[in-house]
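Format is sequence with structure; example below:
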Amino acid sequence: MQAEIAACHARAASVEDTDWERVATLYVVLAHLAPSPVVELNRAVAVGMAHGAARGLEIADTLVGQPVLNGYVQLPAVRGHLLAQLGRIDEARAEFTRAAALTSNERERAIFQARASACRSEQESS
């Protein structure tokens, strides 16, 4: 099942060319076969790409407070990305800052800090 999701994305020439509707549907199936908060977070990303950031954020928000995701850097990273897409810049900056604090990977931390700074710059220019 996971291989089918990966293959669906791998066939695309770019992220924009990915069949996100199909990926989102495959994550629904995967969630039934192997339910987990991480699968749901991945589904949130796919739904956000297929149906808009607001719908993806609805799913991601249901995962906040899940004990298994405490300290899982991808939750605030995904939420930050979706919030930024929705123009909720202050919230996005806070999520990227949280993600940066959670990761032990220096390169990943730099990326999240850059995303937080970009939110700050966007806020100041508006």
